[in-house]
Amino acid sequence: LDRSRQRPASDQATEIHRRRGDIVREGRALLMRARLLSCIGRVPEAVESIRGAVRTLEQIPPGADLARAYSTLAGAAMVDYDVARTITVGTKAIAIAQQVDDVEGLVNTLNVVGTAELITGERAGQEKLERSLELARQAHLGTVAGVVDIHLGLGLIHHGRSREALV
Question: Can you tell me the distance from the alpha carbon of 165 to that of 146, in angstroms, rounded to the nearest whole number?
Answer without folding.
Answer: 13
